[in-house]
């Protein structure tokens, strides 16, 4: 340990399903082979620097509840303590990746130049720490939502100076991500939306956002960054209307601005729910369009309309998520980032470790169930049976014909459809056999 915060906590080990050790893996065995690949290589776990280390335990009605040795977070010495503790946690968990925003790892300076210098110092420290550890960077990103300068958006801001500040910030973060060997770079627009159309030029804001993302891709190629550029669908939080509302909206945006071959999606469970979808829906749609990149694994409280960012604990939901990920060929450069935070009353260092241990176990259980379903083939067989009619020569010929010829066949009585059961409950019962 480089700092006493996690003192007394040993690296977490796999002990099997019968273990009663709250800080041991029961299901996550990184070396277990699932569908021909190590579990660690399938899941590609990442710790989120922001919720695990920058979040202070506040909520809309109450302030800080956590007491951490790196508070207050407005001092470079504290930022180094935070980094020491973060890498101690990475050592304890043994996960292969972590993720950050620029504002998570350094305190804000009085100018961009000062913030840049502070950021660079911490990136130097990260590079030094990573040299002697297995942990790598899954992705970096820029926080362009917390500071008051971003209150009307970043790339969509009506002030061109804010657009310029955003471009400089993303360049800084992309350079650092590239330097640290990051496997992706993520953009998500917490403020890329509007509160009212009374003061919003919607068409211009969308065009500016499209141009900004094209600049990101151009810079990616200029510096030779071989990772994937990702955008994250995010609805109604905190802006009333957000331009990256859900997977379908993002796909339409990417196609409009000629980016569908350059950018993929980082999909979060909590955001899917806020958009009125299921996580599996968003994943299946992204996979169908060839744009599934990476995921933020968390959950929402279904009694709340807010993005509560809780650690996952619902095996059936997680299993169906990994079912679609595995069916699409698995992650490429992406992975499973725990964009999740402790509850305000979970105060101890042990709680932070236990939360990740439980989440990693839930994901491992979900992965094993998903793999078992795919290997059994029951869902695929049911799907093939339901759509078998489309494999006939007549059905394929119909797709190449026109309304007149189709009308003639139906009118002559050659077509007499009868409803068939969708067998939904049978299929739901089938899934429950595995989870």
TrEMBL record:
Binding residue positions for Mg(2+) 2: 268, 271, 307, 309
Where is this gene product found? Cytoplasm
**Alphabetized InterPro entries for the sequence:** Xyl_isomerase-like_sf (IPR036237), Xylose_isom_bac (IPR013452), Xylose_isomerase (IPR001998)
Annotated Mg(2+) 1 binding lies at 232, 268, 296, 339
CC cofactor note: Binds 2 magnesium ions per subunit.
Q: What broad class describes the main subcellular location of this protein?
A: cytoplasm
Q: Which residues form a coiled coil?
A: none
Give Gene Ontology CC terms.
cytoplasm
GO function term, MF aspect, one:
xylose isomerase activity
Task: Indicate the residues that form the catalytic site.
Answer: 101, 104
Gene Ontology BP terms? D-xylose metabolic process
Reactions catalysed according to its record: alpha-D-xylose = alpha-D-xylulofuranose
> Which key words are in the record?
Carbohydrate metabolism, Cytoplasm, Isomerase, Magnesium, Metal-binding, Xylose metabolism
Which cofactors does this protein require? Mg(2+)
Task: Cite the EC number.
Answer: 5.3.1.5
Q: How does it assemble?
A: Homotetramer.
Its family?
Belongs to the xylose isomerase family.
For this protein, the record's HAMAP family field holds: Xylose_isom_A (MF_00455)
NCBIfam families on file: PRK05474.1, xylose_isom_A
Q: What is this protein called?
A: Xylose isomerase
Species in which this protein is naturally found: Pseudooceanicola lipolyticus
């Amino acid at each position: 340990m480089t700092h006493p915060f996690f003192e007394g906590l040993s690296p977490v080990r796999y002990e099997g399903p019968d273990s009663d050790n709250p800080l041991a893996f029961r299901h996550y065995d990184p070396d277990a082979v699932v569908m021909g690949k190590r579990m660690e290589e399938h899941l590609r776990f990442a710790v989120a620097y922001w919720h695990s280390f920058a979040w202070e335990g506040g909520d809309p009605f109450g302030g800080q509840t956590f007491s951490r040795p790196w508070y207050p977070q407005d001092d470079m010495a504290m930022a180094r303590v935070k980094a020491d503790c973060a890498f101690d946690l990475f050592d304890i968990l043994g996960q292969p990746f972590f993720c950050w925003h620029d504002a998570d790892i350094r305190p804000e300076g009085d100018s961009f130049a000062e913030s840049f210098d502070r950021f660079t110092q911490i990136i130097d420290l990260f590079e030094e720490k990573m040299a002697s550890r297995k942990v790598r960077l899954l992705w970096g990103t820029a926080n362009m939502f917390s500071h008051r300068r971003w209150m009307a958006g970043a790339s969509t801001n009506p002030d061109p100076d804010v657009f310029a500040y955003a471009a400089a910030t993303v360049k800084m973060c992309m350079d650092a991500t590239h330097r640290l060997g990051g496997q992706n770079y993520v953009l998500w627009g917490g403020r890329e939306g509007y509160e009212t159309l009374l003061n919003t030029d919607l068409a211009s804001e969308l065009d500016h956002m499209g141009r900004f993302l094209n600049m990101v891709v151009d810079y990616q190629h200029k510096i030779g960054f071989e990772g994937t550029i990702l955008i994250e669908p995010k609805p109604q939080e905190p802006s009333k209307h957000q331009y990256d509302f859900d997977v379908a909206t993002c796909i339409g945006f990417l196609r409009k601005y000629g980016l569908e071959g350059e950018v993929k999606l980082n999909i979060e469970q909590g955001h899917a729910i806020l958009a009125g979808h299921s996580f599996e829906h968003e994943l299946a749609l992204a996979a169908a369009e060839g744009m599934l990149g990476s995921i933020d694994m968390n959950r929402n409280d279904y009694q709340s309309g807010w993005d509560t960012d809780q650690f996952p604990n619902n095996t059936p939901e997680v299993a169906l998520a990994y079912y679609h990920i595995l069916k699409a060929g698995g992650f490429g450069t992406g992975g499973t980032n725990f964009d999740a935070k402790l509850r305000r009353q979970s105060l101890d260092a042990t709680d932070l470790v236990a939360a990740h241990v439980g989440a990693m176990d839930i994901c491992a259980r979900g992965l094993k169930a998903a793999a078992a379903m795919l290997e059994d083939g029951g869902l695929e067989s049911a799907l093939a049976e339901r759509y078998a009619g489309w494999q006939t020569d007549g059905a394929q010929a119909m797709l190449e014909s026109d309304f007149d010829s189709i009308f003639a066949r139906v009118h002559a009585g050659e077509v007499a459809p009868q409803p068939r059961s969708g067998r939904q409950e049978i299929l739901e019962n089938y899934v429950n056999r595995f989870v």
